[in-house]
C-alpha cells in the first residue's frame, strides 16, 4: 500500500501517522506539502492527519480545506481513491465538502484528551475490515471541536446507508449519553461519504498501534487498509 | 470601498460559546440578558469602486470561505 500524508502548517500528528502506516504496510509514506498540486503517482491512500492547521483560524480546518493540494485530493476521491481524515483531518474533509456535516465545539466546552471507546459498526468496508462488526476498541482523543453535527436529513441518510462506521460507546459497548463525551449527534465518531471511500474520524487510531503505547487497538484500521490492497493486487 | 461581512450561527444550531458568555453576563449582574449568540465580523477593504461588483466579490468570499453555510448565515454590507 502506497500512502501519502498531507502536511499543512500547524499539523502535528503527521509523523505519528506515517509511523503507523509504515508499521502496517512496510512501505515509506510520502509526505505531501499543502502547496503541491498533485499527489505522488501510484498513491493508494491519502491521509489528512491531526493537529491544528493554520492555528484553527476562522474555523477548524477551514483554511486547510482550501489549500491547493485539496483539489488533487478531490480528484483522487472522485476516482475512487481511499482518503482517511483523523481529528483535524476530519474537520478538513468536512470543510472541503468531501464529507457532510460539521465538527462543532465540544458540548461541554472542554478540550478532551484521554482514551475513549468506540464501537465498530460494520466490518465490510476498507476502513473497518481489520475488525469485527460490533467490536469495541480503545483509542485516544485530543480535541476541542469534535461534536459532529449535520441536519436531520443528512443524519437520516448516514444512518440509513450504514455510513456511521465508528460510534462512541462505554467499555462494554453500550452507546449512551455518558460515553458521548463531546455531544456528537448519534454518538458519531467516524463516517464515510456516499461512495464509502472517504472516512473522517475524530479519535487517533495511529496512537494505539505499538505495545509501548499501552494499547494496540488502532492496528486493525491500518492492517485492514493494507489487506484491502493486497486483495486488489 | 469598505465593507463588512457578518457571520452568525443559524437558529437552532447549538452555540455553547454564546451560552457561556450569557452565563458570565448574568453572573456579572448585567440585567435583562435573555440570550447570547456569538458570531464573527470581517471588515474588508476592496479595490473595486463598482457597487455591484463589490457585492458579488463579498458574496463569493462569504460562500467560499468566511461562512460555513451548513451552520452559518452571513450578511454583506457596503459601508
Could you please describe the fold and organization of this structure?
The complex is a heterodimer of chains A (233) and B (79). Chain A has 233 residues and is α/β, with parallel strands linked by helices. Helices cover 23% and strands 24% of the residues of chain A. Chain A has helices at residues 14-25, 69-78, 88-95, 152-160, 219-232; strands at residues 3-7, 30-33, 45-48, 82-86, 102-104, 112-120, 136-143, 147-149, 164-169, 188-192, 198-201. In chain A, the strands form 2 sheets. A 9-stranded mixed beta sheet of chain A has the order 2-1-3-4-11-10-9-6-7, with helices on both faces. In chain A, strands 5-8 form a two-stranded antiparallel sheet. In chain A, α1 crosses α5. Chain A is globular, with a radius of gyration of 16 Å. Chain A starts with a strand and ends with a helix. The mean pLDDT of chain A is 96. By secondary structure, chain B is an alpha+beta fold. Chain B has helices at residues 16-27, 51-66, and strands at residues 2-9, 40-45, 72-78. At the A-B interface, loops of A face α1 and α2 of B. Chain B: It holds the Pfam family PurS. Chain B: Its EC number is 6.3.5.3. Chain B: Keywords: ATP-binding, Cytoplasm, Ligase, Nucleotide-binding, Purine biosynthesis. Chain B: One of its GO terms (cellular component) is cytoplasm.
